[in-house]
Automatic annotation (TrEMBL):
Top-rank taxon: Eukaryota
Compositional bias ranges of the Basic and acidic residues kind: 1-11
Region (Disordered): 1-22
Protein name from the UniProt record: Uncharacterized protein
Amino acid sequence: VVEEGYAERPSQKNTSWTEDKEKAYKENVKENATTLRFTQQGVSKVIYPRIFGVKKAKDA
């Protein structure tokens, strides 16, 4: 998740989005949140403000 990132969910108009893709997307979002939380906990107070507003672990 960190190195590759994950694809964003397409708009509701896209009919090629399947339940399997939705399940994988939600799992990726959970993994990303966990990774980002651990990253934020592991950095010093000097570096933390730089990564405070990011939404994806890859961006941190």
